[in-house]
């Protein structure tokens, strides 16, 4: 069995679609409800390093205190931003998926296919109806 972990928010459609694509590949991932069980500092730093993206790109704006806490302030260091994400886990963008093939912030949800190169078991459409996997199990988008 392939070990896959998803940092998941079940209230987020993108996160739900990503989880469904993982399961459509026949994998039952470890699901971490990061709002209830946030990663510790070292784990968050490792995730960001593995994704090879700037810390600010891991931060979510919509529905968070990002703007009111002025996180666009260039004086804030990466360590400052990580500390705020740990204090306010809602600031961590989602879903983050770890697989043997890589770690990725999966926005949009089909980006999970870049780090999950296993065949999809069935056609798949997002919750909004957008087709991602066709009848032959091929990626459409």
From TrEMBL:
What is the enzyme's class at the highest EC level? oxidoreductase
Q: Which UniProt keywords apply?
A: Arsenical resistance, Oxidoreductase
Which transformation does this protein catalyse, written as a reaction?
[glutaredoxin]-dithiol + arsenate + glutathione + H(+) = glutathionyl-S-S-[glutaredoxin] + arsenite + H2O
Q: Which GO terms describe its biological process?
A: response to arsenic-containing substance
Which Enzyme Commission number(s) are listed?
A: 1.20.4.1
Q: What GO terms are given for molecular function?
A: arsenate reductase (glutaredoxin) activity
Q: Write out the similarity annotation.
A: Belongs to the ArsC family.
Which protein are we looking at?
Arsenate reductase
Q: Which species is the source of this protein?
A: Formosimonas limnophila
């Amino acid at each position: 069995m392939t070990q896959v972990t998803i940092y998941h928010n079940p209230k987020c459609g993108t996160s739900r679609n990503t989880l469904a694509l993982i399961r459509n590949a026949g994998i039952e991932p470890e699901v971490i409800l990061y709002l209830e069980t946030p990663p510790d500092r070292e784990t968050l730093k490792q995730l960001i390093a593995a994704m090879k993206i700037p810390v600010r790109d891991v931060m979510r704006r919509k529905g968070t205190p990002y703007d009111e806490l002025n996180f666009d302030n260039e004086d804030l260091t990466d360590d400052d931003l990580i500390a705020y994400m740990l204090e306010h886990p809602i600031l961590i963008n989602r879903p983050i998926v770890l697989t043997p093939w890589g770690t990725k912030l999966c926005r949009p949800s089909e980006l999970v296919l870049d780090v999950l190169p296993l065949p999809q078991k069935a056609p798949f459409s997002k919750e909004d109806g957008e087709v991602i996997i066709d009848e032959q199990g091929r990626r459409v988008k």
